[in-house]
Amino acid sequence: MYLGKLRTSLTSAIRVLSLAFPLLCLFVFCLITEVHRISLMFSSNHPVPLTRNLFFHEFRSRSNNKGSERMFSKLKCLRIEENNDCQVTYQIHIPPDLEELSILGYCGRYPLLHPLSPSANAHALRSLVFREISMDPRLLVQVWHRCEV
Amino acid sequence: MRSLRRLDVYGLGLRDTLPRHHPPWVNYDYRILKNALLEHAPSLEYLMWMDMQYAGTIAPGFRAFGSCERFLHLKDLRLDYDLLVDPAPNYAQHRLADPLEILTSLPPRLERFEVTQFFWPLIERAHVRFLRTRVSQPTVLDDFEQLLFTLSIKNILIVINMDAWESHYREEEDVRSFPIDEPEIHDLRAFSESLHSHDINLEIDYHFDCDSTATNALVRHNMTATVVSYDA
Fold first, then answer.
1. What is the pTM of this model?
2. ipTM of the complex
3. Which of A19, A141, B88, B137 lies in disulfide reach of B133, CB 3.0 to 4.6 Å?
């Protein structure tokens, strides 16, 4: 009888562990990803080859503007959201492999002056999304160098 | 940007809190942007520019995109009405574009067409011109339908802003809602059914300015419900 109870307890424990283990792995994975994401925001001077999608909350152009081409050389998807840093003119240098760029919810004292750098090398860009931002459409057209704006 | 397939612009100026007389996005000739896209992004398949904030005025330099028929690969087009058709000098007397003219200006491979910020008076005028006179002048609507059937378009959505500022009629700035008449809804739903038999889905939604994200269905396939809570 004692052995029977022990077996039942062991079986229950294994069942719980088999359910909890994947969740634990997922939690650790998310934690590592989040730490990695946060660390990127504080290491703007060091090139980081990225191959996965990247999502920025409170993107700071002041720190990421210079050298962003090197930093995000492998980036496929860049999403910038909720930025109210109105003192800085944006010049996002599009990484050569970037396929999707989204800028969401930017409003500040000034319009978004340069959503894309005029020197953008955007031959891989397939999707451009602007949502609820304040932007002068002339400066979007400026991306195409000699275009009349 | 020759690989660009999707340009998606929604709610330009929506969160802008600055008092601007003519914000830069309503003081621009969008034909220039259209021509730049045609030249530099010839593979564009999806173009959306909707729910832009007009602040009740149109600046002198504003021009709509106009005809998009030269976008040969475009499959999905979603524009504010003001960006589709040049506005009248008096914004309150927005001219009613000829639906035939709009149809002939659509890209050849378009499958979905969405117009937002439409005004109910334009629906009323279109109803008078095409639907109410259907019995006496069937050829007008037939021309419209026949032209529509030659296109590859399968889905049409029209979103109407139902807020009627009193200044449309008087100088006071008091907002009310446009009245909806049952005969118009009945005829529009009948027209939607007629198109549905040709595999074209016509839907009309409405909303109010104060809550632009929440839309209500007005015309749908198989829709018979009356709009009872409209004035609530």
1. 0.76
2. 0.84
3. B137
